[in-house]
């Protein structure tokens, strides 16, 4: 465990020290997030590419660890590199959603090639085998899981420090679960990733001086999704679905509610709006810091429940997941998360039409 502590500290220091240089570089190449509509909370251009700091810290620290990289670790690093390349292109050129999806599928497929996939899942039913062998279904299910979490983390990145903080909490949760399971490889990965995020957060928390951009949010989503395949294993091989779904609960549910809301209101699923949870909380009169801290608290509570789910039987874990989902859906319904009551400006409407056309 001492080596994990040392590598975590190294990861924090690398991320913390290089972020100012990445910020200057972003200004130099004009990789800036310029507010263009009311969905943007900030009022002045903010440099992007903060995700590059997290990526460099994660990559360098992994290469500094003792011993050779395992096959799965190489797969995660290669996949992360693909995600970063796609994210950088998007931050600089604002590519169409279909191209972003292609990068994500390519990265997820890389994981499968290197043996990181959902081969078995724990059976939630009271009959049949304890574990279900997915066979060829492992490929589409793994891709769906990785792409889904990648986009969920990307969509929640709407306030200073929100996505980075939620990712840090999720990473810490998976670290604890991995330690409890005796999965040192996954614990090491999450510890290093947590360090890279922690070193970046001082620059990203409100008032942020640099954003992660798509590079960072997609990198964190991809990395956490991949590591969860290794860290939330209840037995020798079976993926405990209830655990990561709870650990990543906030971005998952916020994304699902957004999709349902847009479908109900006849809008394209990929069209942006001001209906996310953080927007609702802001509309209630809370400031950015208050909203972010509330969402940190929600994420921490869900992370704690996921750790509990890891310690109990599979059937009880699925029951716990069902109860939590029902409570969250009820609260979301009461808070109007499924209503499209946000009016857009004419400029935003034109931008939405352009986005719909591009998609």
End-to-end gap:
47 Å
- Tally the beta strands: 5
Describe the biggest sheet? 3 strands, mixed
What's the pLDDT, averaged over the residues? 82
Strand content: under 5%
What is the string of helix and strand elements? HEEHHHEEHHHHEHHHHHH
Q: Specify Rg, calculated over alpha carbons.
A: 20 Å
What would you call the shape?
globular
Oligomer: single chain
Residue windows where pLDDT falls under 50 for at least 5 positions: 342-359
Strand order of the largest sheet: 4-3-5
Q: What is the structural class?
A: mainly alpha
How many domain units? 1
Figure out the total of helices: 14
Helix content: 55-70%
Commentary on this structure:
It comes from Clostridium aestuarii. It is a multi-pass membrane protein. The chain crosses the membrane at residues 6-26, 46-64, 70-89, 101-122, 128-149, 161-180, 186-203, 235-260, 291-312, 318-336. Its main location: membrane. InterPro entries: Glycosyl_transferase_4, PNAcMuramoyl-5peptid_Trfase_CS. With 359 residues, the protein is mostly helical. The protein has one domain (2-358). The chain is 69% helix and 3% strand. The protein contains 14 helices and five strands. The chain has helices spanning 2-28, 50-64, 71-93, 97-113, 138-155, 162-180, 184-204, 213-231, 242-247, 249-264, 277-283, 288-311, 314-334, 346-358, and strands spanning 32-33, 46-47, 120-122, 131-133, 238-239. It has a three-stranded mixed sheet with strand order 4-3-5, with no helix packed on it. Strands 1-2 form a two-stranded antiparallel sheet. Helix 5 crosses helix 8 (213-231). The termini are far apart. Residues 342-359 have low confidence and may be disordered.
């Amino acid at each position: 465990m001492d080596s994990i502590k040392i590598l975590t500290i190294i990861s924090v220091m690398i991320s913390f020290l290089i972020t100012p240089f990445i910020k200057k570089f972003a200004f130099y190449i004009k990789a800036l997030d310029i507010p263009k509509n009311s969905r943007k909370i900030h009022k002045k251009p903010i440099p992007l590419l903060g995700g590059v700091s997290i990526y460099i810290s994660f990559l360098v620290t992994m290469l500094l660890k003792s011993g050779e990289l395992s096959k799965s670790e190489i797969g995660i690093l290669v996949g992360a590199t693909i995600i970063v390349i796609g994210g950088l292109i998007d931050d600089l050129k604002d590519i169409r959603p279909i191209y972003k999806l292609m990068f994500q599928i390519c990265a997820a497929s890389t994981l499968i090639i290197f043996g990181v996939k959902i081969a078995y899942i724990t059976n939630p039913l009271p009959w049949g085998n304890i574990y279900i062998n997915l066979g060829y279904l492992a490929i589409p299910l793994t891709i769906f899981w990785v792409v889904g979490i990648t986009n969920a983390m990307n969509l929640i990145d709407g306030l200073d420090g929100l996505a980075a903080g939620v990712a840090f909490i999720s990473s810490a949760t998976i670290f604890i679960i991995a330690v409890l399971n005796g999965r040192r490889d996954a614990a090491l990965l999450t510890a290093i990733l947590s360090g890279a995020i922690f070193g970046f957060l001082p620059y990203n928390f409100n008032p942020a001086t640099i954003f992660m951009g798509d590079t960072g949010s997609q990198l964190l989503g991809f990395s956490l999704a991949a590591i969860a395949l290794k860290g939330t294993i209840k037995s020798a091989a079976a993926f405990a679905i209830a655990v990561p779904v709870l650990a990543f609960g906030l971005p998952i549910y916020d994304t699902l509610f957004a999709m349902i809301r847009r479908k109900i209101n006849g809008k394209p699923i990929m069209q942006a709006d001001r209906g996310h949870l953080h927007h609702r909380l802001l509309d209630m009169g809370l400031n950015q810091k208050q909203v972010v801290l509330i969402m940190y608290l929600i994420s921490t509570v869900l992370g704690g429940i996921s750790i509990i789910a890891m310690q109990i039987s599979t059937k009880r874990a699925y029951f716990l997941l069902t109860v939590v989902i029902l409570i969250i859906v009820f609260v979301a319904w009461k808070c109007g998360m499924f209503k499209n009551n946000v009016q857009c400006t004419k400029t935003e409407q034109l931008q939405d039409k352009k986005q719909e056309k591009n998609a």
